[in-house]
Amino acid sequence: MTAIAGHIFPNGGTARKQDLQQNLLAKVGTRGEISQYSGGGVLMLHAYSGTGQKTHTLDEPRHPILISGDIRIDNRDDLMDALGPAEHKEDSDAALVRRAFMRWGPECFGRLIGDFAIAIWDTRDKSLYCCRDHFGVRPMFYQTSPDAFTFATEAKMLPAFKENTFSDIYLASFVANIPYCDTQTAHPGIQRLMPGNWLRWQDRQVTVNRYWELEIEPVDCADPTEEFRALFSRAVRDRMTEPSKLATLLSGGLDSSAITGVAEKIRAKQGGDAPLKTYSMVYHENPLIDERRYINDLLAGGAYQPKQLPMDHYQPLKGMNNLLRVQEGPFNAPGLMKTSLMYQGAAQDGVKVILDGHGGDEVVGYGTGRLWELAVAGKWLALIPVSRTHSRLFSDSPIILYQQLLERFGSEHYHTRAARWFLRHFIRTFFPQNHQPIFAWEPYVSPAFAKEMDLQDRSRESLVLTPEQRTSDQHYQRKGLVSPSIGSAFETFDKLSAVTGLEIRYPFFDIRLVQFCLGLASSEKLRRNETRSILRRAMKDIYPSSIAKRQDKTNFIPELAVGLVRHHGDILTQMARDPQGRLAHYFDMDKMRTGLEELKRDPLKMDGGDVMFFWRAAVLHLWFEKGMSGASPVEGG
After folding, report:
1. Which spans in 349-446 are helix H?
2. How far is CA 213 from the centre of its chain?
3. Is the four-CA dihedral 325, 326, 331, 336 of positive or negative sign?
4. 568: part of which helix (H) or strand (E)?
5. Three-state DSSP state, 46
6. Cα–Cα distance between 455 and 213 in angstroms, integer?
7. How many CB atoms neighbour CB 52 within 10 A?
8. Exposed/middle/buried for 94, CB within 10 Å: 0-12, 13-18, 19+?
9. Which residue in 51, 181, 522, 537 could disulfide with 370, CB within 3.0 to 4.6 Å?
10. Cβ-count burial of 479 within 10 angstroms (0-12 exposed, 13-18 middle, 19+ buried)?
């Protein structure tokens, strides 16, 4: 794992510069062995934990271009072909990026494919460049002041960072489950360089530019299935450096099984001696959420070294104080402790790189927009089997889904009006609706706080679809791929992996694969009897029959609800009492107490959105009352 940081003092050496330098050195040093460049009011730091190759050129101070980065480049051959013969062998990705920058300047960022956070000091015109990869797999933060500019791949390395202090707008977003990953971070004074962006600092001026935008480019190829397979295999292969120190997270779902199966085939073809390590969560006492059947079926088809971690007595808030410290405050990931346990197990076994199936849902897509496309085209008979297939995955009623599509897109033709009338009455009779609030937080959040933070409008805005997104699968999928939640998740995983010295790589977020999947027609993703059809077809010789036919996703909400009540009843009771009065600023405590009593009385009957809300409330409570007793919100930001 790698971390970078640095600062520029235009006025040269000062006492504050020395203090900042010592602070940066102390914080960056936790990430590994430090390399540094210091001169002329500029400090650049690079911490390296031994994963992969060197990704800096700080040991070449006489070169006009100095680079420090967390860099993994996938298109090395293409770049070297475009650049022509080198005077010296390109030993590292950093050296290759330097040569690209010498040739093309900041335009080179748009030519890079991979995961990277890069800082470049150009001594020729005393300018600094920072760049972050397309989806934000590698983080980058910065802060500015009249006498200094500071950057780092972790917010806590910057001088403006104050432990246990978050902006109220971030805490409001957390409570209401609104994705928050904007240029302004949760920490006042600290900016986030957004994915697909680069910045330039020169003469105390900062300009931010976008080098890449996710565009929809319709796919036109003879065999989309074979093209998907080739792109996916390359994405996995590009991330398989140091095979003996590689592992995958295997859940038994489509995404992790595809990565694990393809990685094993590549390992075998390359003649690797060491079997591929896999890490899985299993439940011996809870068959409803145990996925060993799928996991073991895949493992039977290759040479693996599996490790299965029992989670039967999982306590969702156990170890939360430590996670809050690692994440620097409240975070919205109920399964993160499970992930942490797998990271720890892998690190203890000598693993350095993990391939993770995160993002498969968003990248491959479910073809949800195909429902709308068929409805808009008036193909109501063709819509019936597709509605049934889509509903089966999300445990919805296909009848209700079909009726909603008729109401929304149906014409005024006699047959359509008759079908709408029939389905309305049928659903009212056989599917009585419990009228739930639109947002799970509404009954419990203090009206005054909700109004102050504009939670109603912000929540609605996060769900709004443009006319194109309401009628086109490609535009709907693009909305998810550029959501703030994508970059936020990567930052969460990055903090967690840093603790164990692991590097997590995400084959599904290979930009070439993403661009291809986004350009596919919805009929390639959602077909009569299967969702995510393109992935299933491409992996037909990878998946065992049980996984190939799998149409469900495991629901862990009941486990979370029961775990909160069974293992953390004392915390729920303390939340209801709110002895310090801190929660009352955010919540209507009378309604919170009523909701908590309902949760304790029958956790399995509580709506999933409410369960998630109470988990977030418990995290906020623990941040205030236990592990982060000095925590405090700040206004604005």
Report:
1. 360-364, 368-376, 380-394, 398-409, 414-430
2. 18
3. negative
4. helix 557-577
5. strand
6. 29
7. 20
8. buried
9. 522
10. middle
Element (H, E) at 298: helix 292-299
User: Which residue in 86, 140, 136 sits closest to 114, CA to CA?
Assistant: 136
Q: What is the DSSP secondary-structure string of 398-417?
A: HHHHHHHHHHHH--S-HHHH
- Evaluated on CA atoms 336, 338, 344, 346, the torsion sign reads negative
User: Residue 526 phi/psi, 5° resolution?
Assistant: -125, 115
Helix H or strand E segment including 39: strand 33-39
Whole-angstrom distance between the N-terminal and C-terminal Cα of the chain?
Answer: 30
The identity of residue 330, as a single letter, is P
CB 160 within 8 A of CB 143: yes
- In three-state secondary structure terms, 361 is helix
Rounded Cα gap, residues 132 and 566, in angstroms: 43
Buried b (16+ CB within 10 A) or exposed e, 592-624: bbebbeebeeebeebeeebbbbbbbbbbbbbbb
- Beta carbons of 248 and 263 less than 8 angstroms apart: yes
User: What's the maximum distance between 2 C-alpha atoms anywhere in the chain?
Assistant: 82
Q: Which of 608, 619, 333, 627 is nearest to 492 (CA)?
A: 333
**Model confidence, pTM:** 0.91
Count CB neighbours of 511 within 10 A.
20
* DSSP string for residues in 85-135: --SS---SHHHHHHHHHHHHGGGGGGG--EEEEEEEEETTTTEEEEEE-SS
User: How would DSSP label each residue in 157-203?
Assistant: GSTT--TTEEEHHHHHHHHHT-----SB-SSTT-EEPPTTEEEEEET
How many other C-beta atoms are found inside a 10 Å radius of the C-beta of residue 542? 24
Please compute Rg for the chain using Cα positions. Answer: 26
pLDDT averages per 10-residue partition of the chain, 637 residues: 85 60 64 79 81 73 91 93 76 89 96 96 95 96 90 90 84 91 87 96 94 95 96 96 90 97 94 90 94 97 95 93 91 94 95 96 90 81 79 69 70 56 57 63 95 92 85 92 92 92 95 97 86 95 95 91 96 92 94 96 93 96 69 47
Distance separating alpha carbons of residues 293 and 280, to the nearest angstrom: 12
